[in-house]
Design brief:
alpha/beta, Rossmann fold, 7-stranded parallel sheet, 17% strand
């Protein structure tokens, strides 16, 4: 008899946690496991990447009202006579006016959202909330399972959450998985009484698939490759990604006369401020927002340098993918930076400022031998996907 697994996720937009889930689902042995997936919303670039063996559960019909403008939501709920849900949606709207911390809002409104989503009838061998907050809360409150697992992809020190509420839900889990050893230590320091539940499973990434997909055309960049140095970033356009640091560094290099072009793959709520900054600096011909790309790997392969100036990261899949493709890398010195690359061996770790980032980029532009060394070292790095999936199997096995 197959082991019955449930994964819970917000949606399948283009983010690191979502990409990590798809990679895991592509790796699971479906001769041994039967997999259901619950999404709060059936949307996102990765929806069409789900393996055919995964059973996508119906979308909870009332959740959409908590994810749309308040006036539209209230009209819809009152129109169908859902007065209690209308009151809950109003509470969410009031909270968003008085609280700026998105993580705290997500924590506080779960008690309202939980009434809008159904409790699942089926019992599972293991239920996995594959992202912090709502997916974990749903697993604890709305799912019957012999084993419950929460999967944390970010640095909890940086979220500004209410640790007491998190403690309550973490207490309802059998295991708390995170994606790097430094993140395990952060969680242990915040929740020492749950030390025994903490496990590390690195993101499971198929190097063979990435290399194969990277061979598809990326003509847009290839046309300009001979005349300029192409720098690429991949990820959400969000404030935590420190995109203005890279933009300022590009401006410094342009003012020094370097023929650099910066390409960004991704979407997010920082797009408008970024576009304004590009225009103010007169860098419209030096910075290109490529939007979401179903296959970003040809663009990474065609680029000269990969850059990520994040303020914090859990375990960045984009950096791991750049490493697989042998790209010289520059990242900022966020807390887990040393867990991503080895400074001076597989990339460069710059300070969290434009001047330092520009200096490190300038060095890579000028030092072909250093770029070649990083690429050679990256190609020698071992890949541990097989070991990580075995860790996962051990966690979900209940007999």
């Amino acid at each position: 008899m197959k082991t019955k697994l449930l994964f819970v996720m917000n949606r399948l937009t283009c983010g690191g946690a979502e990409k990590s889930l798809i990679s895991l689902l592509e790796t699971i042995d479906y001769d041994r496991y039967e997999v259901d997936l619950f999404l709060f919303k059936h949307e996102g670039l990765f929806l069409n990447k789900l393996p055919e063996q995964v059973h996508l559960l119906p979308e909870p019909p009332n959740y959409k009202y908590f994810d749309m403008p308040i006036k539209q939501a209230l009209r819809g709920l009152l129109g169908q006579g859902s007065f209690r849900l209308a009151w809950y949606r109003l509470m969410l709207g009031l909270m968003m006016k008085t609280e700026n911390n998105i993580a705290l809002i997500e924590q506080k409104v779960w008690k309202y959202i939980s009434r809008a989503v159904v409790r699942l009838n089926r019992e599972y061998d293991a239920a996995i909330g594959f992202q912090e907050k709502n997916p974990v809360y749903f697993c604890v409150d709305n799912v019957k399972a012999k084993r419950k697992i929460g999967w944390i992809h970010t640095d909890y020190n940086k979220l500004g959450i209410d640790p007491d509420m998190e403690q309550k839900y973490f207490g309802g889990l059998d295991y708390i998985v995170t994606v790097s050893d430094p993140l395990v230590q952060i969680l242990k320091s915040m929740f020492p009484q749950l030390d025994g539940k903490m496990k590390c499973i690195h993101n499971i990434i198929s190097a063979g698939v990435i290399r194969k997909m990277s061979l598809e055309p990326a003509d847009f960049m290839r046309e300009e490759r001979d005349s300029s140095v192409s720098i690429i970033s991949v990820g959400r356009l969000a404030e935590v990604k420190g995109l203005e640091i890279t933009l300022d560094a590009v401006e410094i290099l342009v003012n020094k006369g370097y023929p650099v072009k910066w390409y960004l793959i991704g979407e997010g709520n920082y797009k408008e401020p970024l576009e304004q900054g590009i225009k103010q600096k007169g860098l419209e011909d030096k910075v290109t927002l490529l939007g979401l790309k179903e296959n970003p790997y040809p663009y990474i392969r065609e680029s000269d340098i990969f850059i990520q100036t994040s303020r914090y990261e859990g375990r960045s899949i984009s950096i791991e993918e750049a490493k697989i493709l042998g790209k010289p890398i520059v990242i900022t010195n966020f807390d887990t930076a040393g867990n991503h690359i080895e400074h001076e061996q597989t990339g460069l770790i710059a300070g969290m400022n434009a001047e330092s980032v520009a200096a490190h980029l300038e060095r890579l532009i000028n030092e072909e031998q250093t770029r070649r060394k990083f690429t050679d070292n990256l190609r020698k790095e071992p890949l541990d996907g097989e070991k990580e999936i075995e860790k996962f199997y051990r966690l979900v096995q209940t007999v």
